[in-house]
Write a structure and sequence with these properties.
Length: 497
């Protein structure tokens, strides 16, 4: 299968393995399939497969230039004993009216693990397939979880360097501890003054700096990305939508062929886009509900068709959603504009230059038929955490609470009572201060690891292996730089001549 840029000509398409290594297209666009897969499969048999085999099957649809045995080996290694639940993505039975798809049972306690345990497998195999003789520099901006998960996934992987930039003061104490405490000789994490969008914008500019890229090549390196702009990060996320559907059927909550809804806490739009791709390859999804926090640029977009990043930026209790430029939305625009790369390029240029764009009425109508959107304030997030716990004894993190609240409002304000799955993106123990305050109305005595203990003392239960591991590593000293210094920092880390 070949992949093209959302902003470029189809004649410049690459094999999937090349697109995985490259990460971001040279024209600034994102890679999408030239011909989207239309696989023929028996849904009943597919959803009965164990997660590893399910992942292998779906990845083969999108990455068919990889030999089947390589994908089998990759999925076996990615979804092995580093997970604390054998199902990888277990679905809770009804809790406070919803099913929660728990995507946080991997080593860094967030949904990013599901893709970022697989991406190194895809990356290293692609390097061998294509005879790449340079080291790969994984360059990533993160609002918290991507940085941690990419560092864990690529730790001490031969032929790779990982450089992560995160917003200064814009990640949780536990996320910061994870990034600075992750062992690995090839890992660098640095804070950037400003917010996530400042870091991500600069990363994109560095990717597109041809002179700097040539300097890298001259020194035996090339860039790639580990965030969801990389198609190799995005596609593994399609798998857990099928896994969720299979568990609903197995539990007798739906019959085979019934449609379901997903509500997805959304920042950079990768997670919900994977749900869209799952629907495109035939999974019976009725609606995808896009849930935002107070940085509700996506809610306004789905409501009005106008994307406008010119607004106040809010630091919230759900930092992975503190984003005003949702990069993966570009891939959805490519679809609703009938793969018109010229129009997509014009929209993205207007966003960069003017800070906003307006989509056509035809494109808006397509979105309305497939998506809904809503947002939750800080107080509503806290209220939802408390409500779910007091109603069912079930603990959720602030990102999941955004999704849960928005789903509840969606059902209240519509006549759509289709079975609902909330995509639960992180362990509540990644945000113990927020969860404890929501439950008690009081602050934890200390931030970070002591607050985990305080929350656990409150709610009881067994801590997972991933949570226990947080106490094992001593963090490195934090460094803070200006966005304009990011390129110089990369040169220093790589010792470029």
């Amino acid at each position: 299968m070949n992949y093209r840029s959302t902003r470029g000509n189809v004649k410049d398409a690459l094999k999937s393995s090349d697109a995985v290594v490259q990460g971001l297209a040279p024209d600034g666009g994102l890679y999408v399939p030239v011909d989207f897969p239309k696989p023929a499969y028996d849904l009943e048999k597919l959803i009965q497969l164990p997660y590893q085999k399910l992942a292998q099957t779906i990845l083969q649809w999108f990455f068919n230039d990889y030999p089947a045995e390589q994908l089998a080996d990759g999925t076996t290694k990615a979804y092995a004993d580093q997970w604390d639940d054998d199902s990888i993505a277990p679905l809770s039975r009804q809790k406070a009216g919803f099913n929660y798809l728990e995507l946080y049972h991997g080593p860094t306690l967030a949904f990013k693990d599901i893709a970022l345990q697989m991406l190194p497998q895809l990356m290293t195999k692609a390097i061998k397939l294509n005879g790449v003789d340079r080291d790969i520099v994984i360059l990533t901006a993160t609002s918290g979880d991507t940085g941690t998960a990419s560092m864990r996934g690529f730790s001490n992987v031969d032929g790779t360097q990982v450089i992560v930039f995160y917003p200064d003061g814009g990640v949780s104490p536990v996320q910061l501890k994870q990034m600075l405490g992750q062992p690995g000789q090839n890992l660098t994490a640095v804070a950037v003054k400003g917010n996530f969008d400042d870091a991500q914008t600069q990363v994109k500019q560095i990717f597109n700096d041809q002179a700097f890229n040539q300097r890298l090549i001259n020194n035996g390196y090339q860039f790639s990305s580990a965030n969801s702009m990389n198609i190799g990060r995005l596609i593994p996320q399609v798998v857990y939508y099928f896994a969720a559907y299979g568990q609903l059927v197995e539990q007798g909550q739906i019959k085979l062929g019934d449609a379901i809804n997903f509500t997805v806490p959304t920042g950079n739009f990768g997670d919900i886009l994977a749900g869209w791709y799952a629907k495109k390859v035939g999974l019976p999804i009725k609606k995808l509900i896009c849930a935002s926090n107070e940085n509700n640029v996506l809610t306004d977009f789905f409501t009005t068709g106008r994307y406008d990043r010119r607004r106040a930026f809010h630091l919230t209790s759900a930092p992975a959603m503190d984003i005003l430029v949702s990069s993966n939305l570009e891939r959805l625009l490519f679809d609703v504009y009938d793969e018109d790369a010229t129009s997509v390029k014009e929209l993205m240029e207007r966003l960069q230059n003017d800070g906003w764009y307006q989509i056509t009425a035809a494109a808006k109508a397509k979105l309305d038929s497939e998506f809904a959107a809503g947002y939750a304030t800080q107080s509503q997030v806290a209220g939802e955490i408390k409500y779910v716990y007091e109603t069912s004894g079930y603990l959720i993190d602030p990102h999941t609470a955004v999704g849960s609240f928005v789903a509840r409002q969606y059902q209240k304000n519509s006549d759509d009572q289709t079975p609902m799955v909330i995509v639960s993106t992180a362990s509540p123990y990644k945000f113990p201060e927020t969860v404890y305050h929501a439950l008690t109305g009081q602050d934890t005595q200390q931030q970070g690891l002591p607050s985990i203990k305080q929350l656990h003392d409150l709610v009881g239960g067994e801590l997972t292996a991933g949570v226990k591991e947080l106490f094992d590593h001593q963090p490195r000293k934090e460094s803070v730089i200006a966005p304009d210094d990011m390129e110089n920092l990369i040169a220093q880390v790589l010792k470029l001549k």
